[in-house]
């Protein structure tokens, strides 16, 4: 056995970044990366609709850190060492330029996740990382002389054993408790995993009939909780999606799980206007557009089809003209615009993200080094930790950052040992 062997379990973004950084920091170390599945970086491949949302164009550390429902405080120190601007520089120094979209998301200029995959694979091979797919880490035991004895599944050769001095677990989100069993077997505590970043299933027929409509800014809230978000919403054939819903689900991951994903949702369609301003606009229409049908005179910026259904949902007959709209009818339209009640009856996972909250408890990890406070020589990176961010590149950034720090510190420990 090499006296300087590092094993990284998990061939995703965090694992690759850690392995590359470790091999760069400690060129004499033998760095082995194990991936349980048949291909590396599978989540990178499908993220952002196949474009890979690498990071987010926010370069203020406290502001960036505030985008994590779980992990905000823990990530402050790591982001001061390696933040979004460092990620941009890292890829651009290796020939991969990124571009910023209007919402702050950053993608490779090629609009292809394969660009990111090729870059990481090339860099791993250049730095001498040994890459193995179809190798799942099944068991870890500590050795009396230090380091670890690993039991590895091999689809071709069965089980194998491997010894190493340092072990990094970057096996991804704990979508089931089994995903964190290795960490638990080494003395760590797992926060129960529950889904984050999911869309809402809503049975309301008129809403489902508007699938494909996007409204740029709404306010969505869950009564009885502190959950309230502003942003774009997308109407779908199963309910509601879009950034405002994904953010609401991220911040409310545990609360909504506790409600078994059955809860009332309030939508304010025109959050920039209060009830009095909306009422004044409707009153003006009763005077200036008296002969026109209410359902046929949309209220910008609401799409025409949405306006029509909101009016009907308010109980206004389809043949009602503005001249015939009563004061009580006007009030009902105002109330519908400022608070549409929609019963949520379930969730649908956002397949581009499939993020979970839960994982290794954060106070059991030293975030200056990403080393376990419980088991010396064991390190963590990525979603196996109880960290998750909102949509927009934040989850990848925490993977790059924690992977980079873990890789650097493992490498430094190997060169000094």
Descriptive account of the structure:
Helix 1 packs parallel to helix 14 (394-416), helix 2 (42-50) packs antiparallel against helix 6 (113-126) and helix 11 (275-288) crosses helix 13. A 6-stranded antiparallel β-barrel has the order 12-15-14-13-16-17. It has 417 residues and is α+β, with helices and mostly antiparallel strands. The chain folds into 2 domains: 5-194 and 351-416, FAD/NAD(P)-binding domain, CATH 3.50.50; 198-349, no CATH class. Helices cover 33% and strands 26% of the residues.
Question: What order do the helices and strands come in, and which of them pair?
Answer:
Layout: E1 5-9, H1 13-25, E2 30-34, H2 42-50, E3 55-56, H3 61-65, H4 76-81, H5 84-92, E4 98-100, E5 105-108, H6 113-126, E6 130-132, E7 135-142, E8 148-154, E9 158-164, E10 166-169, H7 181-185, E11 190-196, E12 198-202, H8 205-208, E13 214-221, E14 228-235, E15 239-241, H9 243-251, H10 253-258, E16 263-268, H11 275-288, H12 304-313, H13 327-338, E17 340-349, E18 355-360, E19 365-366, E20 371-372, E21 378-380, H14 394-416
Parallel strand pairs: 1-2, 1-10, 2-6, 10-21
Antiparallel strand pairs: 3-5, 4-5, 7-8, 8-9, 11-18, 12-15, 12-17, 13-14, 13-16, 14-15, 16-17, 19-20
The largest sheet, given as strand count, sense and whether it forms a barrel, is: 6 strands, antiparallel, barrel
- Assign the CATH topology of the largest domain: FAD/NAD(P)-binding domain
Strand arrangement across the biggest beta sheet: 12-15-14-13-16-17
Strand proportion: 25-35%
Mean pLDDT value = 94
Assign the structural class, choosing from mainly alpha, mainly beta, alpha/beta, alpha+beta, or little secondary structure. alpha+beta
Q: What is the number of E strands?
A: 21
- Point out poorly predicted stretches: none
Total number of domains: 2
Overall CATH class of the largest domain? Alpha Beta
Query: What is the tally of helical segments?
Result: 14
> Which outline best applies?
elongated
Distance between the termini: 16 Å
**Helix percentage range:** 25-40%
The radius of gyration computed from the alpha-carbon positions, rounded to a whole number of angstroms, is 25 Å
CATH-derived architecture of the largest domain? 3-Layer(bba) Sandwich
CATH superfamily of the largest domain: FAD/NAD(P)-binding domain
């Amino acid at each position: 056995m090499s006296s300087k062997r590092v094993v990284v379990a998990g061939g995703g973004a965090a694992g690759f970044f850690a392995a590359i950084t470790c091999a760069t920091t400690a060129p004499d170390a033998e760095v082995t990366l194990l991936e349980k599945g048949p291909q590396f970086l599978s989540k990178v491949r499908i993220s952002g609709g196949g474009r890979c949302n690498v990071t987010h164009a926010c370069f203020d550390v406290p502001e960036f850190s505030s985008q994590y429902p779980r992990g905000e405080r823990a990530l402050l120190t790591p982001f001061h060492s390696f933040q979004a601007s460092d990620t941009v520089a890292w890829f651009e120094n290796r020939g991969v330029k990124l571009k910023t979209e209007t919402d702050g998301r950053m993608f490779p200029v090629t609009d292809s996740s394969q660009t990111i995959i090729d870059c990481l694979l090339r860099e791993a091979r250049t730095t001498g990382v040994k890459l193995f797919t179809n190798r799942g880490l099944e068991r870890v035991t500590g050795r009396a002389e230090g380091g670890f004895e690993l039991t590895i599944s091999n689809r071709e050769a069965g089980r194998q054993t491997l010894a190493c001095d340092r072990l990094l677990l970057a096996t991804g989100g704990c979508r089931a408790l089994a995903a964190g069993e290795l960490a638990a077997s080494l003395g760590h505590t797992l926060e129960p995993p529950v889904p984050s970043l999911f869309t809402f299933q809503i049975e309301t027929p008129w809403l489902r009939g508007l699938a494909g409509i996007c409204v740029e800014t709404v306010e969505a809230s869950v009564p009885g909780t502190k959950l309230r978000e502003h942003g774009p919403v997308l109407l779908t054939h199963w309910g509601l999606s879009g950034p405002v819903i994904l953010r609401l689900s991220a911040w409310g991951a545990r609360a909504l799980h506790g409600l078994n994903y059955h809860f009332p949702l309030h939508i304010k369609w025109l959050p920039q206007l209060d009830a009095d301003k909306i009422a004044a606009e409707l009153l003006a229409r009763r005077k200036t557009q008296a002969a026109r049908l209410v359902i046929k005179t949309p209220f910008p910026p609401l799409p025409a089809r949405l306006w029509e259904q909101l009016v009907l949902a308010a109980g206004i007959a389809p043949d009602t003209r503005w001249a015939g709209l009563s004061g009580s009818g006007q009030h009902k339209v105002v109330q519908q615009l400022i608070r549409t009640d929609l019963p949520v009856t379930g969730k649908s996972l956002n397949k581009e993200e499939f993020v979970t909250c839960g994982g290794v408890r954060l106070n059991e990890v030293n975030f200056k080094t990403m080393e376990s406070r419980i088991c010396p020589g064991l390190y963590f990176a990525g979603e196996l930790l109880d960290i998750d961010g909102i949509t927009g590149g934040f989850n990848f950034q925490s993977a790059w950052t924690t992977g980079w720090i873990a890789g650097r510190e493992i490498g430094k420990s190997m060169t000094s040992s």
